[in-house]
Amino acid sequence: MSVKEIPTKPFDGQKPGTSGLRKRVKVFQQEHYTENFVQSIFDAIPLSGSTLVVGGDGRYYSPEAVQIILRIASANGVSKLLIGKDGILSTPAVSNIIRKYKANGGILLTASHNPGGPNADFGIKYNVENGGPAPENITEKIFARTKTISSYKVLEAPAVDISKLGDTTYGPLKVTIIDSVKDYLELLHTIFDFKLIKSFLESHKTSFKVLFDGLHGVTGPYAKAIILETLGLPASSVQNCEPSPDFGGGHPDPNLTYAHSLVDAVEKGRINFGAASDGDGDRNMIYGAGAFVTPSDSVAIIADWAEVIPYFNKKGGVKGLARSMPTSAAIDLVAKAKGLEYFEVPTGWKFFGNLMDAGRLSICGEESFGTGSDHIREKDGLWAVVAWLNIIAAANEQDKSGKLWGIREILNKHYAKYGRSFFSRYDYEEVPSEGAQKLVDHVNGLIKSSSFSGKSYESSATGISFTVAKAYNFDYTDPIDKSVSKNQGQVVTFSDGSRVVWRLSGTGSQGATVRMYVERYVSADAGERELSRDTGEGLQALIDVALDISNLKQFLGREQPTVIT
Ligand code: G6P
Ligand code: ZN
Question: Where is the Alpha-D-phosphohexomutase alpha/beta/alpha domain (predicted)?
């Protein structure tokens, strides 16, 4: 076996975004493309002698990528790779394994919720030793290296069989093929009250139905281990739980548009508790018959009920709470009520990591269907699902009247206590970059203009008007390492406390994706009728005004958003 140095030339655009490098599979398949990026990781970060975890959501091109990593890692002096069986490891599972086995980092093969298959997306992401996504100073170093790379090193050896558990070697490199599910399942057992959940489900076999949809992503085997084996529910409680390289031709994103397989089944079967997770298992959606939980409400509710989850008791309570900037302020209200510290960070889970490492953050979430805690350094789809089951089981145990507590009852109780933040996001996917830039420039113009604040805008359809209070670009200084992230979204607030945010997606693989987030708060004393209104209805006037202010339809050439969540 010999190490060979292969000459190469830089490729343009190998810039890892919020969540790694994401491109079409065809792009990764170009000669030297994947190798260049992987070698750039090893050039940018000193990893000789290190232990790394490798795995992903099993999407198309993953097996090839694992072998490329094996060849390059070995030639670059890595000492050990822990690889998920068949290359399968969910993103939360990788985060846990890095932490549990004190690895130096991990390479995740996923494009998260983006579709997979020969004509869809692939991705490579690097996580650091705390188990979280690499911070910007590291991804910048990797990117810088991709621009100057002139060769990469490979060990020439036959491929490793990654379908067999156990130890092997690849030249000087030690390789262990690990069970994809075991460590993660053990972790969840240290967090939740599975006994309570199981006993609630057993005693409500006919009145409380559960359905988890894996959307053909990586969570299938994990969900089966938790929902079927641990909680003892029937096989009909999971669907689409066989991971497939192209996610069954679907779009593995748990939201109301793409997770229609779940939505349909929940409505048809009047399922009390439905949930789905994305391609790599870090996102989640909670959806029961007639009751959709926005991710912003979900994290607020989990925080509010945290004491029923043993992990947060054992560790001496919840330290702090946090959300990404575009996420609704529902969790802020919980933090205030509980006297907890809370943070507003830019979009991207990596921003929570420093706060967690510093012991100041326990529970956090993002509007982009991400919810999690400091048990790992990634958001965690199944963690959120089990958290909800734990809360529902506890609510039923607490109420001795025999009333059945489900998603709707928990939501109503929350709104009655804290009020409700109506929240919605409009996505305009793969629009021309020039149009998106024009929109950004236009809103920046408004932000700079002295006559913008105080100006009123009326929604012609509803006759309701909104007066601009403040407008700014969101900048963030990390309270721990003082690093500064500028221009993380354009925010306009109104005199009634409503808010609109525009932001360019950092995760698209083609063109630009513009996101518009709208939020309107209704206080608890508005009464049940106001609080239980349909989201679209509650927000219509604000959406009209937001479209008007930003001139969005004209700049993007789109009448309708691609997705509304
Ligand atoms: C990934 C990250 C999330 C982030 C999201 C933003 O899923 O893990 O933390 O919220 O991307 O995506 P966007 O497309 O809005 O940049
Ligand atoms: Zn994901």
Answer: 14-152, 202-287, 313-396
Q: Using the Cα atoms of residue 556, residue 278, residue 411 and residue 343 in order, give the sign of their dihedral.
A: negative
Q: Whose CA is nearest to atom 2 of ligand 1?
A: 348
pLDDT tens-digit profile of 436-460? Answer: 999 999 999 999 998 899 989 988 8
Domain shared by 229 and 264, yes or no:
yes
Distant-in-sequence, close-in-space partners of 413: CB < 8 Å, separation ≥ 6: none
Distance 212 CA to ligand 2 centre (A): 16
**Residues 509/114, Cβ–Cβ less than 8 Å:** yes
**Domain CATH number, residue 541:** 3.30.310.50
**Ligand 1 atom nearest to 347, measured from its CA:** 10
* Across 164-185, average pLDDT: 96
pTM, two decimals, is 0.94
State what percent of residues in the chain have pLDDT above 90.
Answer: 85
Among candidate residues 394, 418, 442, the one where a domain is terminated: 418
Render pLDDT for 17-53 as a digit per residue (tens, 0 to 9): 768 999 999 999 999 999 999 999 999 999 999 999 9
Total domain count for the chain? Answer: 3
Q: Indicate whether this complex's ipTM tops 0.90.
A: yes
Helix (H), strand (E) at residue 135: none
If asked whether residues 170 and 90 sit together in one domain, one would say yes
* Conformational region of residue 359, where left means phi above 0, alpha means psi within -120 to 50, and beta covers everything else: left
Return mean pLDDT, the chain.
Answer: 94
Distance 113 CA to ligand 1 centre (A): 10
Alpha carbon of 282 to ligand 1 centroid (Å) = 11
How far does residue 70's CA lie from ligand 1's centre (Å)?
A: 28
User: Pick from 372, 396, 418: which residue ends a domain?
Assistant: 418
> What residues flank ligand 1, with Cβ below 6 Å?
18-19, 112, 324, 347-349, 366, 368, 370, 505-507, 515
Report the alpha-carbon distance of residue 210 to residue 205 in Å, rounded. 10
Q: Which of 112, 298, 509, 550 is catalytic?
A: 112
- For residue 173, give its domain range: 2-180
Whether 112 sits among the annotated catalytic residues: the reply is: yes
**From 15, 18, 125, mutation site for ligand 1 pocket: most ligand atoms within 8 A of C-beta:** 18
For residues 205 and 68, membership in a common domain is answered with: no
Q: Ligand 1, residue 515: give the atom nearest the CA.
A: 15
Which of 217, 369, 221, 367 is CA-nearest to residue 283?
A: 369
- Same domain for 428 and 411, yes or no, is no
- Pick from 366, 380, 488 the residue to mutate for probing ligand 1's pocket: most ligand atoms within 8 Å of its CB: 366
Task: Tell me, yes or no, whether 199 and 246 share the same domain.
Answer: yes
Indicate the SS3 state at residue 530.
helix
Q: Are both 20 and 106 inside the same structural domain?
A: yes
